[in-house]
Amino acid sequence: MAKDTNYVSETTKFIKNYVEKHPGIAEQRAKVYKTWWDDDGIDQEEQNEYKDSKVKLDAYAYFSYPTGK
Fold it and tell me: Would the pTM count as exceeding 0.70?
């Protein structure tokens, strides 16, 4: 059975039409993408503070062994 390569979904048509009608969308999309996916926004000091602020858990999280104090 041959694959139909001429088919274009409704979603693809909508996106192509939207991009044609809104020419500035590419720049806005790139800016938003960088906001969510680029990791260079957090500096080393902030990463270290985050690591140090984690609560240390016992080996078994649902029971704490008595400390004897």
Answer: no
With b for 16 or more beta-carbon neighbours within 10 A and e for fewer, the 23-57 pattern comes to: eeeeeeeeeeeeeeeeeeeeeeeeeeeeeeeeeee
On whether the CB atoms of residues 25 and 19 are closer than 8 A, the answer is yes
CB atoms closer than 10 angstroms to residue 64: 9
| Residue 24, amino acid | G
The secondary structure element, H or E, covering residue 49 is helix 44-52
CB 25 within 8 A of CB 18: yes
Per-residue pLDDT reduced to its tens digit, 35-57: 777 666 667 788 788 888 877 76
Do you know the residue count of the chain? 69
